[in-house]
Amino acid sequence: MQDDILSVLYSEAEIKTAVARLGKAIKQDYQGKNPLLIGILKGAIVFMTDLIRSVDDFVEIDFMDVSSYGDAAVSSGEVKILKDLDTSVAGRDIIIVEDIVDSGRTLDYLIKLFQTRAANSVKICALLDKPEGRQTEVTADYIGLRVPNEFVVGYGLDYAEKYRNLPYIGILKPEVYED
Ligand code: 5GP
Ligand code: MG
Ligand code: MG
Question: Could you give the CA distance from residue 90 to residue 93 in angstroms, rounded to a whole number?
Protein backbone atom coordinates (compact mmCIF):
# COMPACT_ATOMS: atom_id res chain seq x y z
CA MET A 1 0.00 0.00 0.00
CA GLN A 2 1.17 3.50 -0.80
CA ASP A 3 2.63 5.35 2.25
CA ASP A 4 0.19 8.28 2.19
CA ILE A 5 -2.87 6.00 2.27
CA LEU A 6 -4.57 5.53 5.64
CA SER A 7 -6.79 2.65 4.52
CA VAL A 8 -8.21 0.98 1.44
CA LEU A 9 -11.98 1.54 1.10
CA TYR A 10 -12.54 -0.45 -2.08
CA SER A 11 -10.18 -2.98 -3.63
CA GLU A 12 -9.49 -3.38 -7.32
CA ALA A 13 -11.79 -6.43 -7.37
CA GLU A 14 -14.67 -4.59 -5.66
CA ILE A 15 -14.37 -1.72 -8.14
CA LYS A 16 -14.34 -4.16 -11.05
CA THR A 17 -17.57 -5.78 -9.86
CA ALA A 18 -19.26 -2.38 -9.42
CA VAL A 19 -18.19 -1.16 -12.88
CA ALA A 20 -19.42 -4.38 -14.51
CA ARG A 21 -22.81 -3.89 -12.86
CA LEU A 22 -23.05 -0.28 -14.12
CA GLY A 23 -22.05 -1.28 -17.66
CA LYS A 24 -24.72 -3.96 -17.72
CA ALA A 25 -27.40 -1.54 -16.50
CA ILE A 26 -26.47 1.04 -19.14
CA LYS A 27 -26.46 -1.60 -21.88
CA GLN A 28 -29.98 -2.63 -20.87
CA ASP A 29 -31.37 0.89 -20.51
CA TYR A 30 -29.93 2.28 -23.77
CA GLN A 31 -30.58 -0.56 -26.23
CA GLY A 32 -30.63 0.86 -29.78
CA LYS A 33 -29.89 4.40 -28.53
CA ASN A 34 -26.16 5.14 -29.07
CA PRO A 35 -25.72 7.29 -25.94
CA LEU A 36 -23.00 9.93 -25.66
CA LEU A 37 -20.93 9.30 -22.55
CA ILE A 38 -19.31 12.48 -21.32
CA GLY A 39 -16.35 11.90 -19.02
CA ILE A 40 -15.47 14.71 -16.64
CA LEU A 41 -11.71 15.20 -16.65
CA LYS A 42 -9.52 14.21 -15.14
CA GLY A 43 -11.01 12.21 -12.26
CA ALA A 44 -13.35 10.12 -14.43
CA ILE A 45 -10.78 8.82 -16.94
CA VAL A 46 -9.91 5.52 -15.28
CA PHE A 47 -13.58 4.78 -14.54
CA MET A 48 -14.59 5.85 -18.06
CA THR A 49 -12.16 3.52 -19.84
CA ASP A 50 -13.33 0.53 -17.80
CA LEU A 51 -17.01 1.51 -18.00
CA ILE A 52 -17.23 1.85 -21.80
CA ARG A 53 -15.69 -1.61 -22.26
CA SER A 54 -18.19 -3.10 -19.84
CA VAL A 55 -21.21 -1.58 -21.66
CA ASP A 56 -20.69 -3.94 -24.60
CA ASP A 57 -22.92 -1.97 -27.02
CA PHE A 58 -22.66 1.17 -29.19
CA VAL A 59 -21.63 4.27 -27.26
CA GLU A 60 -19.82 7.46 -28.21
CA ILE A 61 -17.53 9.33 -25.87
CA ASP A 62 -16.43 12.89 -25.28
CA PHE A 63 -14.73 14.74 -22.44
CA MET A 64 -15.18 17.96 -20.61
CA ASP A 65 -12.96 19.59 -18.03
CA VAL A 66 -14.55 21.66 -15.32
CA SER A 67 -13.07 22.95 -12.12
CA SER A 68 -14.62 23.52 -8.74
CA TYR A 69 -11.87 22.38 -6.42
CA GLY A 70 -8.42 23.48 -7.56
CA ASP A 71 -5.94 21.69 -5.35
CA ALA A 72 -7.95 22.24 -2.18
CA ALA A 73 -9.79 19.43 -0.41
CA VAL A 74 -12.83 21.66 0.17
CA SER A 75 -15.19 22.74 -2.62
CA SER A 76 -15.15 26.42 -3.60
CA GLY A 77 -18.70 26.11 -4.92
CA GLU A 78 -17.67 27.70 -8.20
CA VAL A 79 -17.83 25.75 -11.51
CA LYS A 80 -15.77 26.84 -14.49
CA ILE A 81 -15.48 25.20 -17.96
CA LEU A 82 -11.78 24.56 -18.67
CA LYS A 83 -12.38 22.38 -21.78
CA ASP A 84 -15.67 22.13 -23.60
CA LEU A 85 -17.03 19.23 -25.69
CA ASP A 86 -16.09 18.53 -29.31
CA THR A 87 -19.52 16.98 -29.93
CA SER A 88 -22.93 18.66 -30.08
CA VAL A 89 -25.29 17.36 -27.40
CA ALA A 90 -28.45 18.55 -29.18
CA GLY A 91 -30.91 15.66 -29.49
CA ARG A 92 -28.46 13.23 -27.86
CA ASP A 93 -28.96 10.89 -24.93
CA ILE A 94 -26.25 12.00 -22.53
CA ILE A 95 -24.69 10.06 -19.71
CA ILE A 96 -22.38 12.19 -17.60
CA VAL A 97 -19.57 10.01 -16.26
CA GLU A 98 -18.19 11.37 -12.99
CA ASP A 99 -15.69 10.05 -10.48
CA ILE A 100 -17.62 11.17 -7.39
CA VAL A 101 -20.71 13.13 -6.39
CA ASP A 102 -19.86 15.18 -3.32
CA SER A 103 -21.66 18.53 -2.96
CA GLY A 104 -23.37 17.86 -6.30
CA ARG A 105 -22.58 21.36 -7.56
CA THR A 106 -20.57 20.21 -10.58
CA LEU A 107 -23.34 17.90 -11.75
CA ASP A 108 -26.07 20.38 -10.97
CA TYR A 109 -24.28 22.82 -13.26
CA LEU A 110 -23.64 20.26 -16.03
CA ILE A 111 -27.21 18.89 -16.08
CA LYS A 112 -28.56 22.42 -16.57
CA LEU A 113 -25.92 23.17 -19.20
CA PHE A 114 -26.78 20.08 -21.30
CA GLN A 115 -30.51 20.78 -20.95
CA THR A 116 -29.89 24.32 -22.23
CA ARG A 117 -27.99 22.78 -25.14
CA ALA A 118 -31.12 20.71 -25.96
CA ALA A 119 -29.95 17.20 -25.07
CA ASN A 120 -32.73 14.62 -25.48
CA SER A 121 -31.98 13.14 -22.04
CA VAL A 122 -29.34 13.61 -19.34
CA LYS A 123 -28.38 10.96 -16.82
CA ILE A 124 -25.51 10.61 -14.40
CA CYS A 125 -23.24 7.67 -13.86
CA ALA A 126 -20.91 8.16 -10.89
CA LEU A 127 -18.38 5.67 -9.62
CA LEU A 128 -18.63 7.04 -6.09
CA ASP A 129 -21.32 8.75 -4.09
CA LYS A 130 -20.57 10.73 -0.93
CA PRO A 131 -24.12 11.49 0.28
CA GLU A 132 -23.03 13.38 3.41
CA GLY A 133 -21.34 16.01 1.26
CA ARG A 134 -24.47 16.97 -0.65
CA GLN A 135 -25.36 20.69 -0.94
CA THR A 136 -27.79 20.28 -3.87
CA GLU A 137 -30.70 18.01 -4.85
CA VAL A 138 -28.56 16.02 -7.32
CA THR A 139 -28.68 12.22 -7.27
CA ALA A 140 -26.86 9.99 -9.74
CA ASP A 141 -28.93 7.57 -11.84
CA TYR A 142 -26.14 4.97 -11.77
CA ILE A 143 -23.98 4.73 -8.65
CA GLY A 144 -21.04 2.37 -8.24
CA LEU A 145 -20.05 2.59 -4.57
CA ARG A 146 -20.82 4.75 -1.53
CA VAL A 147 -18.07 6.46 0.42
CA PRO A 148 -18.05 8.12 3.87
CA ASN A 149 -17.40 11.82 4.34
CA GLU A 150 -13.63 11.48 3.92
CA PHE A 151 -11.26 12.63 1.21
CA VAL A 152 -10.65 9.63 -1.05
CA VAL A 153 -8.07 9.07 -3.79
CA GLY A 154 -7.17 6.46 -6.38
CA TYR A 155 -8.74 4.96 -9.53
CA GLY A 156 -8.65 8.40 -11.18
CA LEU A 157 -9.20 10.57 -8.10
CA ASP A 158 -6.33 12.81 -7.11
CA TYR A 159 -5.03 15.01 -4.42
CA ALA A 160 -2.90 17.77 -6.00
CA GLU A 161 -2.62 15.58 -9.16
CA LYS A 162 -1.21 12.60 -7.27
CA TYR A 163 -2.61 9.11 -6.60
CA ARG A 164 -4.80 8.89 -9.76
CA ASN A 165 -3.01 5.69 -10.81
CA LEU A 166 -3.69 3.73 -7.63
CA PRO A 167 -5.81 0.72 -8.64
CA TYR A 168 -7.93 0.95 -5.46
CA ILE A 169 -9.94 3.67 -3.67
CA GLY A 170 -8.25 4.74 -0.46
CA ILE A 171 -8.56 7.30 2.29
CA LEU A 172 -5.68 9.73 2.34
CA LYS A 173 -3.91 10.36 5.64
CA PRO A 174 -5.17 13.79 6.82
CA GLU A 175 -1.58 14.97 7.47
CA VAL A 176 -0.94 14.78 3.71
CA TYR A 177 -3.28 17.69 3.06
CA GLU A 178 -3.01 19.40 6.44
CA ASP A 179 0.73 20.08 5.94
P1 5GP B 1 -18.92 18.23 -6.21
O2 5GP B 1 -18.66 18.78 -4.84
O3 5GP B 1 -19.20 19.32 -7.20
O4 5GP B 1 -20.01 17.18 -6.19
O5 5GP B 1 -17.60 17.47 -6.65
C6 5GP B 1 -16.71 18.09 -7.51
C7 5GP B 1 -15.46 17.29 -7.72
O8 5GP B 1 -14.70 17.35 -6.54
C9 5GP B 1 -15.57 15.81 -8.01
O10 5GP B 1 -15.85 15.54 -9.36
C11 5GP B 1 -14.17 15.37 -7.66
O12 5GP B 1 -13.30 15.60 -8.74
C13 5GP B 1 -13.84 16.27 -6.48
N14 5GP B 1 -14.04 15.56 -5.21
C15 5GP B 1 -15.10 15.54 -4.38
N16 5GP B 1 -14.89 14.73 -3.32
C17 5GP B 1 -13.65 14.22 -3.51
C18 5GP B 1 -12.84 13.27 -2.77
O19 5GP B 1 -13.19 12.72 -1.72
N20 5GP B 1 -11.63 12.99 -3.31
C21 5GP B 1 -11.17 13.54 -4.47
N22 5GP B 1 -9.96 13.19 -4.90
N23 5GP B 1 -11.89 14.42 -5.18
C24 5GP B 1 -13.12 14.74 -4.70
MG1 MG C 1 -14.61 15.17 -10.99
MG1 MG D 1 -9.30 16.65 -8.19
Answer: 9
Q: Which residues, 6+ apart, have CB-to-CB distance to 4 below 8 Å?
A: 162, 163, 172, 173, 176
CB 37 within 8 A of CB 155: no
Residue 163, domain member (yes or no): no
CATH code for the domain of 67: 3.40.50.2020
Q: Which residues pair with 154 in a beta bridge?
A: 157
Distance 22 CA to ligand 1 centre (A): 20
Residue 54 is assigned to a structural domain of this protein: yes
- 10 Å CB burial of residue 22 (0-12, 13-18, 19+) is buried
Is the sign of the CA dihedral 66, 133, 19, 173 positive or negative? positive
Task: Give the ligand at the shortest distance from the Cα of 132.
Answer: 1
176 in contact with ligand 1, CB cutoff 6 A = no
How many CA atoms within 13 Å lie on the side-chain side of 158?
14
pLDDT tens-place string over residues 25-43:
999 999 999 999 999 999 9
Query: Over the stretch 141-160, which tens digit does the pLDDT of each residue have?
Result: 999 999 999 999 999 999 99
170 lies in a domain? no
Q: Which of 16, 21, 95 is nearest to 56 (CA)?
A: 21
User: What DSSP character marks residue 173?
Assistant: P
Q: Is residue 168 part of a domain?
A: no
Strand partners, 25: none
